[in-house]
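Backbone-to-sequence.
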């Protein structure tokens, strides 16, 4: 069990735990060669070559090289310093940018990576190659990530490029079938099992590693405040800061075990603000004391556990710097470093409304670096952001030493990951049984019988999406339940309203159940076929519902559920 004794004793006490991942049985993981250049690597681009020398040997007087407190050790830092010292200004500016691109034209994007010396790329839903039936074309996806990887290393750098994705589970999943579909992260809090959270982190990451990814911007360690939280919701593990911290660490260590870098997000916590930073700038009015007692706790735990990345959110925090997003606030990064963080601070996407409205034309890029960011995610125009950084250094608006520091941190992290956490890939869909196990442990009955049949042999179904209802029907047939007559089962999807029905089932966050008039209320936290199989088994009385609410739902307190 991951313990939070440090926070119970003192919020400021430091511990430098290595970010080693637990070895989990039952996962058939095979090594893949998807990351790193192959024999067909393009020649280095014109300009200075930044190939670094082999890392220096460990001090002969010590058994191991000196750790840095966030994963890498001194040999990684030394190799990164030497490599960055040989870079041009344009190369350094590229090293701190992780862009997105529109559509499936990987070749054009690869040439942009090469020309601007970019750190790599993030893959979004519209970049994913698809088969005629709408599934992910896994062979094409592997080929695309390998091409981007070669582009990131085309100027001679000796560390892997960052090939990233957002794959949290639930509503945030850029890669769909045939990859495993996972329930929402809130299911880990409902299941109450750290080993399951760790296994999920490893299994999700193993499927990504098999396709050539090495970064997943997960988990969301935000503590949700409840139905007034419009952005995080079931992306949050729990409404308890301690639970979010413990399970977030477990999930992250599982990710590292498969060779995928995690990022705890969104510092200083997006779960307790009432507007969506994708659209406008949220304002956090809590005092620093209040933040340290709740929202900052999971980030402190992540830092103390030695996790390598923290993502800063676009949230104006009165206790830091009023009116300025934390991602661009010097006071925000100062607090993060004061908490003991030594790793890579990555911004949330810079093309979001909260940034673009205040800092148009990617003017936020050099400002975020000057404030203390190390890696800039998804500027609206990577060309404009790169130019803005170079011009800011030349004009003196951005200190050259600050850019050097950021580039060194990014290179240090990637050298360490490539050396200590090789990708351990698995086949797409290999996590299906584990996904079903999580839903089995998470499903929560808020009202209705706990250990008896809930519905008769025939039911009607409404709500949700067409796919939700189709999956319900498949699972119902398997459970021996017919569709078309009988009591009404209403499915409540993401953002859905309370239901009037005989049985109400929430597929995402459970809060709509508070005002539902149904005699039976069930929180499922997912909408995969595996989740529906679990639901129908419970409705038919063939399986128990052991999950406990990880958040309050109306008058029902966290921990409520079948006893």
């Amino acid at each position: 069990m991951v313990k939070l004794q440090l926070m119970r004793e003192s919020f400021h006490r430091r511990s430098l735990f290595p970010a080693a991942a637990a070895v989990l049985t039952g996962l058939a993981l095979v090594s893949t060669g998807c990351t790193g250049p192959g024999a067909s690597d393009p020649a280095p681009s014109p300009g200075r070559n930044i190939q670094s020398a082999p890392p220096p040997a460990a001090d002969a007087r010590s058994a191991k090289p000196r750790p840095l407190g966030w994963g890498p050790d001194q040999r990684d830092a030394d190799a990164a310093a030497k490599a960055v010292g040989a870079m041009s200004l344009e190369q350094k500016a590229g090293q701190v940018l992780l862009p997105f691109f529109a559509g499936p034209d990987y070749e054009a994007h690869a040439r942009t990576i090469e020309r601007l010396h970019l750190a790599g790329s993030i893959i979004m839903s519209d970049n994913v190659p698809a088969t005629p039936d709408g599934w992910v074309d896994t062979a094409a996806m592997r080929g695309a990530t390998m091409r981007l990887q070669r582009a990131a290393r085309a100027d001679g750098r000796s560390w892997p490029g960052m090939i990233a994705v957002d794959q949290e589970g639930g509503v945030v999943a850029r890669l769909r079938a045939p990859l495993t579909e996972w329930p929402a992260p809130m299911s880990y809090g409902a299941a109450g099992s750290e080993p399951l959270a760790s296994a999920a982190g490893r299994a999700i990451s193993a499927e990504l590693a098999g396709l050539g990814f090495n970064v997943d911007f997960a988990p969301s360690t935000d503590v949700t405040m409840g139905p007034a939280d419009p952005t995080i919701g079931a992306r949050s593990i729990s409404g308890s800061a301690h639970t979010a911290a413990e399970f977030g660490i477990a999930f992250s260590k599982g990710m590292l075990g498969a060779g995928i870098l995690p990022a705890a997000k969104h510092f200083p916590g997006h779960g307790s603000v009432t507007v969506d930073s994708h659209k406008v700038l949220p304002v956090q009015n809590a005092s620093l004391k209040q933040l340290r007692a709740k929202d900052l706790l999971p980030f402190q735990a992540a830092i103390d556990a030695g996790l390598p990345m923290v993502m800063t959110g676009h949230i104006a925090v009165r206790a830091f710097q009023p009116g300025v997003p934390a991602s661009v606030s010097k006071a925000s990064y100062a607090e993060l470093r004061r908490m003991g963080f030594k790793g890579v601070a990555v911004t949330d996407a810079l093309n979001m409304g909260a940034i673009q409205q205040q800092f148009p034309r990617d003017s936020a890029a050099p400002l975020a670096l000057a404030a203390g960011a190390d890696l800039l995610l998804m500027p609206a125009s990577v060309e404009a952001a790169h130019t803005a950084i170079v011009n800011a250094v030349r004009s003196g608006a951005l200190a050259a030493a600050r850019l050097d520091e950021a580039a060194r941190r990014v290179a240090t992290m990637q050298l360490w990951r490539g050396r200590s956490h090789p990708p351990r890939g698995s086949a797409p869909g290999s996590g299906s049984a584990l996904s079903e196990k999580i839903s089995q442990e998470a499903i929560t009955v808020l009202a209705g019988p706990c250990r008896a049949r809930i519905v008769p042999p025939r039911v009607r179904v409404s709500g949700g999406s067409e796919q939700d209802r189709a999956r319900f029907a498949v699972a119902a047939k398997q459970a021996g339940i017919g569709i078309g007559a009988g009591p009404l089962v209403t499915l409540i999807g993401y953002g859905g309203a309370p239901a009037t029905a005989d049985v109400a089932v929430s597929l995402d966050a459970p809060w709509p159940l508070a005002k539902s008039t149904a005699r039976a209320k069930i929180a499922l936290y997912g909408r995969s076929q595996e989740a529906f199989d679990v639901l129908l088994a419970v409705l038919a009385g063939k399986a128990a519902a052991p999950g406990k609410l990880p958040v309050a739902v109306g008058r029902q307190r966290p921990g409520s559920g079948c006893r």
